[in-house]
């Protein structure tokens, strides 16, 4: 289904050869090189893998110390990247649509001839890159909560599994914080659904502001949020959970609508698996609600 969508997008508009028309010696380049690069790029829809292929091909034109691709779905670097004296930047454009920026670094100068050859390689990449970008965007959309932009339940399930496995393998702590807003329903009932949405957006901002970029943040739907804390011991995890609840409680919109947050925290123990850890955090959240809401309980 996703593949068909990508295929449709790829076929929906005619190719732009604007970049290629700038090439003076386009006809002179060996056809086999061109075919082999295109066919290699068609073997994957993974942007990083495509960049690695292009990096290998560009390396035959000029030894590169780094190759970086900047896109709307993130930045990518070819392996072994190192900055060097000479830099060359190219904007990759297809059908008047800017796909990405490619930044080359080398210890050797980018002469006009080299630049032309790189431009040819780039033009070979445009369709494959656009398809990979569409796939990446679809994947991101499938894993995000549309309202807040936090990870959704599906993404949580994947991330939680990975976080628990990693913690076990590295013998490191892993904590789960489940957060549920208190008295949220009355915001919808009294002030309307859009006021409720504003509160949910404010809570997402509080989570982003209070937690580190490496922490994984999710909204399950409704007024339920989750945070996976990797590498934090019990004391730090509790501190973080309390700080997060305080940030939500002190947000002006939450105060205006008398919404607070309750949280349940659990830390992975040697006997527990993912399901036990989740139930422990859920039980602690229930205990926080039972204790009068607006508080944190540790399992
Ligand atoms: N505005 C808005 N409301 C939503 C959304 N998703 C779910 N809800 C509402 O969120 C509310 C969640 O219900 P509860 O958790 O029982 O509400 P509560 O008042 O916080 O209950 P306590 O946790 O016991 O304090 C329901 O009224 C849902 O309709 C959404 O995306 N936007």
TrEMBL record:
<dbReference type="InterPro" id="IPR043128">
    <property type="entry name" value="Rev_trsase/Diguanyl_cyclase"/>
</dbReference>
<dbReference type="InterPro" id="IPR000160">
    <property type="entry name" value="GGDEF_dom"/>
</dbReference>
<dbReference type="Pfam" id="PF00990">
    <property type="entry name" value="GGDEF"/>
</dbReference>
<dbReference type="InterPro" id="IPR050469">
    <property type="entry name" value="Diguanylate_Cyclase"/>
</dbReference>
<feature type="domain" description="GGDEF">
    <location>
        <begin position="172"/>
        <end position="299"/>
    </location>
</feature>
<protein>
    <recommendedName>
        <fullName>diguanylate cyclase</fullName>
        <ecNumber>2.7.7.65</ecNumber>
    </recommendedName>
</protein>
<dbReference type="InterPro" id="IPR029787">
    <property type="entry name" value="Nucleotide_cyclase"/>
</dbReference>
